[in-house]
Amino acid sequence: MKNVFADIHCHPTMKSYGQSFNREQGTNSSRTNDRSSIWYYDPPNLSDKLLNFVGGITRFSQSNLTALGYGNVGLICASLYPIEKLFFNNHLGSGKISDVVNNFITGVGKKRVDFIQSSADYFTDLEQEYAFLQQLDGKIYTIDNQKYRYVIVKSYAEVESLLIENDPVFTIAILITFEGCHALGTGMDPVNKPSEEALILSNLDKVKNWPHKPLFVTFAHHFYNELCGQAKSLKGIVGTVCDQSYKLGEGFTELGKSVARKLLDNTNGKRILIDIKHMSRKSRLEYFDMLATEYSNERIPIVASHGGVCGNETDRHFFVDEEINFYDDELLLIARSRGLFGVQLDERRIASKAELENTKGSILRKKILYNWSRLVWRQIEHIAILLDANGLFAWDIQCLGSDYDGIVDPINGYWTSEEFQFLDDYLLKHAYNFENNGMKNLHLEHNKIAAEQIVNRFMSLNVQEFVSRNF
C-alpha cells in the first residue's frame, strides 16, 4: 500500500460547509477556487500568522483536501460537527457584534453563524453536512499537474484498493466520524425541553444505516449534551465568551448509557466505536467500568481521537495536566484495548505554558520546525515509556489526531496539513536522538525498534492497522 500519512481527527468540511450558507446552502462547490468547495486552498499569509501568534485565532483553512494532498495525507477520519448553539449564543449575545466576532474567530461565515443561532435540530444539520461531503465523492481534480480525488470508504478492503502504489491519481481515503453526540439531536434545551430517548435512538439507527457507517463518534463535546458530563475545554477569547459550566464534570445519564449501548451494539456488524475525548474524567471512568462489566467477554477498542497526555511525577512539567487531557491509567487502558491515541497539534493541549515559552524564540524556520516538533515527540515518548514499563508494546497507539479546522491554535511552523511532510522529517530527527541515546528509558528489547519504524507507526501504520482490525 502507498506510504501516505493518516490523521484520525480533522474537520475538512467545517469551513467550506459553513461558507456554503453564503451562497447555496449545503452545496459543495465543484469549483476549487470557491470558498464553499472542500478543495479550496487557503494557506496562511503573514497577517494570518501574526493573528494566530497574538490571539491564537486560526482564520485560514488547515485541512482542505488540497492541503491534505500537498501534505501526502491519504487516510483521514473526517469529523462532521454540527456546531453547538451555545458556541454562538454566548456572553456576547446574538446581535450583529456577536455575529461578527463569532465569524471572525471560526471562519465559518456569518450566515452559518445565523443558522446555528436559530437552529432547532442538530441532527438535520449533521445529515446535511454528511450530504455535503458526499457530493464530490470520487470526483477527480487536476491541481498543479497532479490528479487528486477523495473517496468516502466503507471498509478497510476499499482503503487498500484505493491506496495502491503507482496510481497516477492521489486518493484521499475518508472515514466518517462526527464530534459530539449532541449531533443525534440532544442538548438543544436540556432544562426546558429534555430529549426524547425514542427519537434519539431512532436517529442513531439512521446513522448506523448510512451508506458510510462512522468508524467512531466523539461522545461528548464542549457543552452538556444530556448524555454525559463534559471536561472544560475552551480557553482564551472563546473560553471567556462561552459558558461551559452546566453539568461540567458530571457522569453518564441514563439516556447516555442507552446511546452508548446502542453505539456498541454489533448487530449486523454495525458497531460504532466511542471516542472518549471531551468526556469528563468521571464519565470516562464510568465508560471504562461499562466496558469491564457489560462487555467483559469482548475487547472493544478505546479511542481518544485528539488530545495530550497529563504526564506524571517525572515529566508533568512538560504537559497540560488538566482533565481535558489524559492520565496514565487511561493510556494503559487504551493500549490494552488495542485502541488509538491521536496527538492533537494544538498549543493549548500539547505543552505547559512554561514549556511553550521555552519553545518560542527562534525566527529561523528550521529551528522552529525542530523545536515545535519536539513537543509532539514528547507525547509519543511519554506514552512509549509508560507502556514499556507496564510490559506492553510501546509504539502502537500513538498517531496523529490534529484537530485541524476544529478551531485550534496549531503548533508554530505546522500551520496546516500541508506541513505534515515536515513533521514526518523532524520527528525522525528526535527519534534518531532517542535511538542514539540507547533508548535507555525502555527496558523491553522488543520495544527498541528503529527510529524510522517509530515515526512510520505514528504518521501512518498504527492507523492503518487499527482500521484493518475494526472497519
From TrEMBL:
<feature type="compositionally biased region" description="Polar residues">
    <location>
        <begin position="16"/>
        <end position="31"/>
    </location>
</feature>
<dbReference type="InterPro" id="IPR008257">
    <property type="entry name" value="Pept_M19"/>
</dbReference>
<dbReference type="Pfam" id="PF01244">
    <property type="entry name" value="Peptidase_M19"/>
</dbReference>
<dbReference type="GO" id="GO:0070573">
    <property type="term" value="F:metallodipeptidase activity"/>
</dbReference>
<dbReference type="GO" id="GO:0006508">
    <property type="term" value="P:proteolysis"/>
</dbReference>
<dbReference type="InterPro" id="IPR032466">
    <property type="entry name" value="Metal_Hydrolase"/>
</dbReference>
<protein>
    <submittedName>
        <fullName>Peptidase M19</fullName>
    </submittedName>
</protein>
<feature type="region of interest" description="Disordered">
    <location>
        <begin position="16"/>
        <end position="35"/>
    </location>
</feature>
